[in-house]
Amino acid sequence: MGCQTDQELLGIIERVKPLVAKGKVADYIPALKAADQSNVSAAVFHITRGSDVCVSAGDIEQKFTLQSISKVLVLALALIDQGYTNVFQKVGMEPTGDPYNSMIKLETSSHSKPLNPMINAGALAVTSMVNGNSPDEKWRRILHFVQCLLGGKAIGYNKEVADSEYKTTDLNRSLCYFMKQHGVIDGDVDELIDIYTKQCAIEMNCLDLSRIAAVFANNGRDPQTGNILIEEEVARICKTFMVTCGMYNASGEFAIKVGIPAKSGVSGGIMAVVPGKLGIGIFSPALDERGNSIAGAEILKIMAEEYHFSIF
Amino acid sequence: MGCQTDQELLGIIERVKPLVAKGKVADYIPALKAADQSNVSAAVFHITRGSDVCVSAGDIEQKFTLQSISKVLVLALALIDQGYTNVFQKVGMEPTGDPYNSMIKLETSSHSKPLNPMINAGALAVTSMVNGNSPDEKWRRILHFVQCLLGGKAIGYNKEVADSEYKTTDLNRSLCYFMKQHGVIDGDVDELIDIYTKQCAIEMNCLDLSRIAAVFANNGRDPQTGNILIEEEVARICKTFMVTCGMYNASGEFAIKVGIPAKSGVSGGIMAVVPGKLGIGIFSPALDERGNSIAGAEILKIMAEEYHFSIF
Amino acid sequence: MGCQTDQELLGIIERVKPLVAKGKVADYIPALKAADQSNVSAAVFHITRGSDVCVSAGDIEQKFTLQSISKVLVLALALIDQGYTNVFQKVGMEPTGDPYNSMIKLETSSHSKPLNPMINAGALAVTSMVNGNSPDEKWRRILHFVQCLLGGKAIGYNKEVADSEYKTTDLNRSLCYFMKQHGVIDGDVDELIDIYTKQCAIEMNCLDLSRIAAVFANNGRDPQTGNILIEEEVARICKTFMVTCGMYNASGEFAIKVGIPAKSGVSGGIMAVVPGKLGIGIFSPALDERGNSIAGAEILKIMAEEYHFSIF
Amino acid sequence: MGCQTDQELLGIIERVKPLVAKGKVADYIPALKAADQSNVSAAVFHITRGSDVCVSAGDIEQKFTLQSISKVLVLALALIDQGYTNVFQKVGMEPTGDPYNSMIKLETSSHSKPLNPMINAGALAVTSMVNGNSPDEKWRRILHFVQCLLGGKAIGYNKEVADSEYKTTDLNRSLCYFMKQHGVIDGDVDELIDIYTKQCAIEMNCLDLSRIAAVFANNGRDPQTGNILIEEEVARICKTFMVTCGMYNASGEFAIKVGIPAKSGVSGGIMAVVPGKLGIGIFSPALDERGNSIAGAEILKIMAEEYHFSIF
């Protein structure tokens, strides 16, 4: 199996580095805009090797916020908390040709049901379904769940990013009030936005992200202890959404060209899963025009070609 | 000119009364749902007769809330306050084939500009442009303006209706946050919603409404004192919108079949203007499937046919 | 009443002439592209003066094709042939915020009914309803009707323009097949397209067009003989559509700013009607970004301001 | 590996048989309407067993037309003929939340490019790209290609179904003319429609279909001779589209619940691929509300659960 050494991974990073000049760092909030456009780091977490399970390369200490990658993790938690039927009563399973923040399908669909949990409307509805008697409890359960996926490692969120998004995310408020009017969500919108902006601001490095990806690669089991962290079916559902809707409006093309289940975030992170083999965490903040890390997507394309990582 | 006596108007009301059974009272808030479906009242305010200027028929004491009719009045005030250029920088002038509360065109139009001031998005943007250093001052200026149109008569708003709408109008909040994200409006959304739900809940009877209509019929001048209450151009703009977008998604058909500038509200009120001649106020809460008073629209159709009130 | 002399009209033309440099001649078919961008001509046909009824200015010999202006004339004929109920069973009466050649509302509306007869879909459906046992008879009846509106003057159509449009108008074919699938039209699509492209290519000068406009201004009666050419109700319906949908996606703005019922064509022609007073024919092929003659629209704006021609 | 005997497969068919009563046979053309709603047949073609490679059950002699299943096969041929770059210059790779026959995205997308090759617009564009100097040659090449996938077996098409669809498929003509106007396709529309309706009417039984599916399961190689019929990359692309867009507007849900690449047709056929293992052909004409064979989809769901056939 491929990508066994740091050196090998570094080689791939060197090949994709020139691409960062063609991308653009997200600039809608100052905290994201400050990212170093030239940054590229990656880690591969093998689930089938002995003690030395992770290879990495680039500036692996560099932290970044999860942004939309968090949608997959909170979906897993909501499915654990509420079950398949309840979750998919409120959120659909179909990919969409519309932008991730579009309202149109909410208006034209019967029941105003968001098409899937990877667009913003669906992700907000999913977050609203996490168990908890208070907004604070919901948020702490989300953070705790992510820490469990990291083997108990204490991580937190970037308060500056969360605060900044909270203040400016009126489009998400618009989506929430629309869904509230139609009974898709209930409760206080600002409390939900508060949790959502925090979950998006959860911060880690590519090593951490590769470990979480490895849980999904390992059918929901902790790659080190073998403990079940996510039921196998839930892990499978999450991987399926990563294929059909994980890379914004380039998901179909990414499935064709790369074929690795992956979820990207506007910070430049990508979590990718090679089922039964390994998890991948990537960070490179220069984005292409559809919002995916330009170097990150290319790393996965190279891996798919060289190591035959496509699921298709 | 037609409709000179109470008796004549009563005759028309008797003819349309059977229609109320085919309509449906708005039921999205309890206060509106409580309306008596069989109610029909109307008043005609002539601007060219001597002292005895108004004929009326039906239960003319019955008050109702203005709802969308208020959009025309607040548009007039915003045009007075901010001027043509400022107002139409934020709101368009084009009719739409979409529902009055639709988001779609906001998303697909460049600049997210609401298509016109008679759909909810446009009306909310217009209300946000009324002058005032505080929400309270804006609201008091709106109420004062309406009272001026009534010759100084003290009227108020229905607090129960306003409160009820404030609590449930999440779709309007959704529209506001969408527009806020795109810079069409700024400021606090809930404060704007508070003013807007109050303006919609301004309460009067059909006699009052016919007097306001008479101001528009009289090119903006008070029909009794001759004082300028609204500049002629502003009055003309308002009448034009009443023709192109005043009757929800039946505006085009109403222009063809009736041809009288009119604005309806979901409470069952209709304000109609026969330019240079008279103003009409109607109340009958049974609505047709497009949200217009079923008996009210028929009264205007009969008047158009019998008295040649069409502007076309 | 205004615009009594050629000199007066020439003065207006001189004022608007500089605007043509800002416009753009339609270039989607060679025959239209060949138009002289600097051309401006206009005629005003008074219905209330004695023998000398028409004033004109500019290169009044210049012919142009009617293009979308023909939609109004063929609507009149279809209403005469089929009656109000039949026509409006197939075509709606509502303005739309979508482009004149859009498919979207056909797909999202129940019954796939075109929203109004001034968008292409609606106009095609209207043309299909003209009486005639063969395509050729339908076409000859249309041409004959237009000649009647011209007091019997023999006019024809520009074969080069019609042929060119016939070959390239695949979007209109697309609209037709969509409507055929949904039962809005039946019969052979290419035969319908043939008639439609010919009607759009009917050729005349601004004097002719002003005479046709005068028929509408005169409630359907021939302005010279007083004969009824169009029933009054049909004429009224046509004028109403000219207000709500006559100037493409600038109809609402034109109603506000000018307030004269008008229909424009992509050739640069505008037919405008001042009810009870006069008809106006304008030709100036430089178009603004919404497809209306830039100088032509300004001529009407000046007339509305100086002669109080607005109907509002 | 599962499903080794006819008996085993028959057991599954018996379990799903009661479902057919809940479905509805396609009725838009008489030839499809005549199908026997109670019919269920299936075949599984193993690529890794010796001489006895195929198990089957139900009325396996029953022929059916491919309908949309042909979209996958013609995509493979177009990719072979024109190459990846040319094909995807005209057709996108993204799933859509809109119906398979929708025009909306064509109008709102830049370049009017169909979103993917599994919706009608995309499939028509793909068919237009098949090599051939004449419509007849294109059609014969398509038929020949399908026969190659069947190991040279002579099959044909159902002329009655093709003729019937040719006469009534005005919506597809509408899509074609729209694309022609925008340069996505060129050439004669009716000739393209003729080829397309024939490809949809290619007729076979479930044994045949399972053999074709086995070619895809075998990475494009003939499961009996090992000859390359489709390049591996082309086969991979086809399988990916089957996952993201193969089951109409239930594709996302089918990926979640079943996870087997599959393409359905309105005749009630489904071609499904378990990569590296086997191909499945199913016929059962009773459709669910999204146009997929109700019993067929359930057969695949049972197989996914019992034999772990999901790729996720």
Automatic annotation (TrEMBL), chains A, B, C, D:
UniProt key word Zinc-finger: no
Enzyme class: hydrolase
Reaction catalyzed: L-glutamine + H2O = L-glutamate + NH4(+)
Pfam families: Glutaminase (PF04960)
UniProt keyword terms in alphabetical order: Acetylation, Hydrolase
Molecular-function GO terms, alphabetical: glutaminase activity
Domain of life: Bacteria
Keyword Oxidoreductase: no
Chain sites annotated for binding substrate: S68, N120, E165, N172, Y196, Y248, V266
EC number(s) stated in the UniProt entry for this protein: 3.5.1.2
InterPro entries (UniProt xref): Beta-lactam/transpept-like, Glutaminase
GO biological process: glutamate biosynthetic process; L-glutamine catabolic process
Subunit structure: Homotetramer.
Family note: Belongs to the glutaminase family.
Stored HAMAP family: Glutaminase
Protein's name according to its UniProt entry: Glutaminase
